[in-house]
Each structure stands twice: as structure tokens, then as C-alpha cells.
Amino acid sequence: MFYKSTRGEEVKNSSAAILNGIANDGGLYVPSSFPAITAEDLRDMSDLEYKDRAAYVMSKFLTDYSLEELTEYADNAYSRFEDSDPAPLVKVDDNTYVMELWHGPTLAFKDLALTILPYLMTGARKKHAIDKTTLILVATSGDTGKAALEGFKDVEGTEIVVFYPSEGVSDMQKLQMQTTEGKNVHVIGIEGNFDDAQNAVKAVFGDADVRQRLNKSGYMLSSANSINFGRLVPQIAYYISAYTDLLASEEISEGDEINFVVPSGNFGNVLAGYYACRMGLPIKQLIVASNCNNILTDFFSSGEYDTNRAFYKTMSPSMDILVSSNLERLLFELGDRDENFVKTLMKDLKEMGRYELDPEILDRKFPQFIGYSSTEDETRDVMDNFFDEYGYLLDPHTAVGMSAYFKYLSETIDGDTATVIVSTANPYKFPQDVYAAVSKSREDNAKKAMKKLHVFTGMDIPEAISELDNKDILHDKVIPKADIKATILALFEKRK
Ligand SMILES: *Cc1c(COP(=O)(O)O)cnc(C)c1O
After folding, report:
1. 139 alpha carbon to ligand 1 midpoint, in Å?
2. How do residues 218-271 score in pLDDT, each as one tens digit?
3. Residues spanned by the domain of 372
4. Is residue 35 assigned to a domain?
């Protein structure tokens, strides 16, 4: 299998795609074809532990890594999770399951991929005999930053720089990042939102002058954002694993279709679900859940993607995104893998901030996608009511997902399809908003809210949150968004 950019460039294998992160032409790498997953594969996988399922799924895409290598990576990565199953399914009602993807070191679903990406990267460096330092640039809406920092800190041959919107992440998310130790980590706030950070980082990737100057100083750039294909593959695994779990527990029978509900921002998580579907996983609907930054909802209903709109800061900051990078990979499939189709749309997006597609073609090509968005009030109500009814605490992102599911149920007669709500974060990452929603009283201090939430709900406070109390702030730099390029050069360019 080889890899190609959504804008045309080809590389010969997956390790080259992972090393580069983003293609030189500005496009995102995709596999030359989708490997198949058969009914027999699914049956066989039901007996395996999660790490072996993940290694098996990854081996179908990452054909220049051996199954042994991938098994070792998965073993190392997933031993950092609380439990032997990093993606447990919790049945909350008939046909309704929550897949908890937040038992990793930083308590968000990003850990499923970012605990393993450093191994994939280190393996790729060996395969390609890279002697330069891999300089990983990350733009984060809150969770990618900490997960990438935890994954790459003190990894030999790498430096990592994380840019986060200084006023656009939760207090706990910010604290998690600012307290990260490690000799190769840099954490920098920017005055701007996530889209500003992501655009600026992408511009650095596309800047031949910067690349060359860094190269001369001994660095090659890469990415730990979901634009890196190495982020997507481990995510495909949990969609398949959820299905095999339901098979193993006889909640579904072979061949049954299931739904997934995915709280979405940069479109990386749900795209992995789509790739699983393309491999042959029986998926009926992929329900794309958005907060009031509902650009994806509008896209799937009208075919119009228009970023000329207000940007809202919400309780679910990791979904406060208007430019969803991974949609480019979906457009590539929509246009039957024609790079010129993608290039035209991306040009429109750059020049006019919008592009438009025929909604009928969208419907015909992607019948599985359906989008719903929720207001802040709706999200708060879902957190509150769900806790009352099931004694189960949802974080604000997962609550946006649950709200989308309720909307879907009220519009269709599909109560019989097993549905997995992909739960993307632990509620203690957002203690003020979760506490306010379930208790109806407000505590604005994050650490106090964490304690009150514990008293109110009885849910254990994870150590990754409680230990923040005793940690020093090591990174407090904040820069204007226009200074990202200069800051990177100041940090890494060696001048004679
Ligand atoms: C990153 C994130 C999302 C959005 O995922 P995408 O892959 O960017 O669509 C949703 N919820 C949480 C908690 C996240 O950290």
C-alpha cells in the first residue's frame, strides 16, 4: 500500500506519511486503497484483547511495519491506561452504549492515538534513517496538546511545540499543559482561537523558507494533529473493537448494522469511523454531533461549508472549530479521489472562506452521515437529565453527542439499532460547567468545582486531575498569533 496526498503528491509507504505529517503540497495523506475487514476477521477479533485488535487493524494500513512491531507499540501504549481495556463499552439503556475513551494518561480520546504515535514516529525515523531531530508542531483546541505532550515528552530525537488558544481552553486543560515536564517540550498560548493556531501552524508547514532554515539547523517538521495519518489509524481500531465487543456479548448478531454518535470538531474522530465503514464494518449511521459552532451540521444538510460566521466559545472547547481539517479527506472520496476536485474546493475555502457542493451528491455518496447541533442550554439539560436518570455523568462534549442522539431518535423510528455514543473526555476536565449543570449552583474555581463535583456525584477524581494541585506552572508564555513563525525560528534556528 502506498500513500497519496489529497492534493496529488505520492509517498511510497505509511512511515513516510507519518514522518512528514502533512504533504508538501498542503494536502493530507490517505491510503491508496481501503483494506477489507471481513465477517470472519470480526469474529476472530472478538476473542482478542484490545491491544491485539488495534495492532491487527493498524497492520492492514501500515504495511511497512510488521505485526510484531505494531503489537509491541500497542502493548506499550495501552499499558499506560487505567485498565486493560482502553475503550470499554458501558450499556446505559436498551440499544444505547457509551464507549469511554478517556481512561488514558490525559483523560481524553486523543490518548488512544497519541500514546501510540510516538512509537510509530520513532519506528519511521529508524526505517528512513533520519538523523535530523523531528520537530513536532501542534495546534490544540485543548486535548490534543496535553495528549501529544505526554506522548512525546523525553522521546529521543524529537522536540514538541504546542500552541493553544490562551482564552479558548478549559482551566483544567490549560493547567494540564502548563505543568508538563520534559526537556523537549514547549507550550505556548496564542491570542486567538483554535482556527488561528491551526492556520498559523499549517502556514509554517507550507513555508519553504522556514522549512529550509529549520532544516539547516538540524530539524525536520512533523505534526501530531489529526492531519497526521498516524493519528487516524489507531482511531479506526476502536470503532471495530466496539463492534466486536457487541458481537462477543451477543448484544448484536453477525452482520447487524450499528450507529455511532461522534462529538466532532476537526473531523478526525468521525473520519476514522468512516474509514472503518469503508473497510466493511456494518455501520448504519455516523451521527456527527456539533455544539453551536454548527458548520458541520449545515454542511451535511445543505452541502454548503461557510466559515464566514460567528465563532462561539462554548462549554465544549475542543469542538470550537470552524475549519475542520479532516473534511478534506472526505472531499477526496466525494470527488472519486481526484486531487483537482479537492484543490478547487480548498482554493475556494482559502479565497472566500466557503465552498458549496450539491447536497444530493453528498447524500448519495455518504448516506451514513447525518449531523445535529445543540445549544448550550440543550447540552446543560442533557448533562443534568442524564445524570438524574442513569446516575451517569457526561462531560460537555459527550453531552453534545448524547443530545444529537436524542434528536436523531426523535426524528426517526430507529430505536432498534444498537448505538454507540463515543465518549471523548472525562467530566473532571470541565468541572465548573459539569458541576453547574448537575447541581444548579456555580463554582468558578476549577479546583474547588472539582471537589464539589466529587461530593455531589460520588464519581472518583482521576489522579491526572487531582495531582495538578501540587504541580508548578512551567510554561506561561502567551504570544500574538502573528508571531508563531518568528517564535518557532527563535526557538530552533541556529545562527552562526
Ligand atoms: C478533540 C476532541 C473532540 C473533537 O474531535 P475531532 O477529532 O477533532 O473531531 C471532541 N471531544 C473532545 C473531548 C476532544 O478532545
Report:
1. 13
2. 999 999 999 999 999 999 999 999 999 999 999 999 999 999 999 999 999 999
3. 89-108+230-468
4. no
